[in-house]
Amino acid sequence: MSQLPACPKCQSEYVYEDGAMLVCPECGHEWNPQEVADQEPTFRDANGNPLADGDTVTVIKDLKVKGSSLVVKVGTKVKNIRLTDQGDHDIDCKIDGIGPMKLKSEFVKKA
Predict the structure, then answer these.
(1) How far apart are CA 57 and CA 59, in angstroms?
(2) Is the dihedral of CA 86, 107, 94, 63 positive or negative?
């Protein structure tokens, strides 16, 4: 049995083939796997706006810093982000007063 990719829209693992197309039964999204493979990965903020290297973003939720008692507060501006597709954290950045961090794009909005 071949391993099908997760849905690019909702990340559901219950994808099935319908001819040359792949279909997600959870959100109804249909896509051609060859077209998706040719595209560069896109990163979007919590509101669906596309992110790019060098953007400034604002944190939308209090985030605890793993391994310390520090908290990144709501409204913290993060300048000059760098996007990466390594692991589940999309954003490499440096936050004033805390230092280098990795953030998930779902917890930021474009400033």
Answers:
(1) 7
(2) negative
Same domain, 20 and 60: no
Q: Is 0.90 surpassed by the pTM of this model?
A: no
Provide φ and ψ at 25, rounded to 5°.
-75, -20
Q: Does 68 map to a domain?
A: yes
Which residue, 63, 33, 31, 25, is CA-closest to 46? 63
Q: Is there a single domain that holds both residue 69 and residue 106?
A: yes
The pLDDT tens digits of the residues spanning 67-94 come to: 999 999 999 999 999 999 878 899 999 9
CB 78 within 8 A of CB 96: no
* Domain span holding position 18: 1-39
Written as one letter, the residue type at 73 is K
Domains: count for the chain: 2
Chain CA centroid to CA 62, Å:
18
Taking a C-beta distance cutoff of 8 angstroms, is the pair 101, 94 a contact? yes
**What are the residue ranges of helices labelled H in the chain?**
33-38
